[in-house]
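Researcher: Let's run the pair from yesterday's discussion. Sequence first, then tokens, for each.
Model: Starting with the first of the pair.
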Amino acid sequence: MRIAVCGTKGGSGKSTLAGLLALCLNDAGRKVCAVDKDPQWTLTTWLQSVGGKRFLTPTHYKDSAPQNSTLLGEWGGGLEPNEDCIWIEDYPPASPQVLLQMLGKGEKPHDLLLIPCRPALADIWSIRSFLEGLDGYNGKVRLVMNALDNSSISKAGSIESLLKGIKTPRTKATLSRRACYSYAMAGGWPALDEKAKSEVLSLALEIMK
């Protein structure tokens, strides 16, 4: 399976989402290859600091940057996205047009585009225009509500109202604003409390169906 985590706005939680999913799936015994397309290299630095292995020999697609890839799990044999091997790619903020160009460089299509969205008006306005620009993309796209808190805008009714008219389906699973998600950048999966692990696991199970 090949997943792209993307969006048009910095700070939406793309790298955090990609990293949490990679750690969760690895903890569940899956092989994960995390490909960092963002020049900040946040995902690379994070996963390699908690035991990920540097990936030096890309076999999947020609434009891959080997120094930006990290392997999680016990590896053997070929490196191709399939039932046993999950590729999670973290893309930099980009317009829909630029993103589609970047996505088109791979030799194989993505199985899923994941787009995180925080509960802030500016983020929701931005994501609305971004998704409109992706209209017609021939692939599966899902919006993930991220960093939800106890504010009124994070309530289900408010989100439904603000996202009214957006055709892109949302995942049922959401991520809350939790300090331990930041702690995971230093301590990996064990640094998360049980509620945080449950949130990420619910999302992982949903997207892997």
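Model: Moving on to the second of the pair.
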Amino acid sequence: MSIKTAFIGLGVMGYPMAGYLAHAGHDVTVYNRTTAKATQWTSEYGGKAALTPAEAAAGADFVFCCVGNDDDLRSVTSAENGAFESMQPGSVFIDHTTTSAEVARELHGKAAKLGFAFVDAPVSGGQAGAENGQLTVMIGGDEEAVERAAPLIDCYARMQSRLGAPGSGQLAKMVNQICIAGLVQGLSEALHFAGRAGLDARAVVDVIAKGAAQSWQMDNRASTMIEGQFDFGFAVDWMRKDLGYVLSEARNNGAHLPVTALVDQFYSEVQARGGNRWDTSSLITLLDKASTN
């Protein structure tokens, strides 16, 4: 059954996610700040392009969103010409942006007063996961709204799970980013050590990737780290944004995150070297630099 939907934000993640909704036969209206991208999407997938988020959301049963940060999310939801202006009672707003838990709770409250649901549903899996329809989705929000949205999210997800009340999805994404930060730093140090010890790092990885040290980061990033290739993947700027949310939340809840705070500082050094858009695996460049000093 075709469902009337809208998708706001057609970046490297949102563009293919909206495409999967269209492939599933749903009626999709898209909005993107750069209108050329929306026009490109409709030429590829059909559907319609709107000039404002409010226009995109008008009459939609489900409105999806994947933008940059808290401020971007507010601008397309509760600001002038935002989606909240036109969303109908009983509809559901599904936000796939990685934001603070605070803004998720804030917008959930505003949506409830207007008679519709807000679900925070950040994703993991990167651009490749979005393009292959294999994302992991961490969800917070009212159970009934989450259940209604689940079949649509399944269009581009391999795994989705409701973790609790509004904001819980964002908190779970913070857990995800804490894990990634520590793993990438550990892998960077391991590869650096292997090189300094005179080992063939590729051969070592081939062995240890079959044991307890195995991780997604090792399987997908070790070879490019060895080759010094970082012009792809999840950008350092975005990881620093995410870790900022993590460390702010930790200050509020009393969590002690010494490794995460340290890795965040390391990423700031990568930015200072001009690596803002490098993949997060570029942490290894700091170790290589230290060895030559």
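Researcher: Give me one sentence on the second I can quote.
Model: The beta strands are 4-8, 27-31, 48-49, 62-65, 92-95, 117-120, 123-124, 135-140, 157-164.
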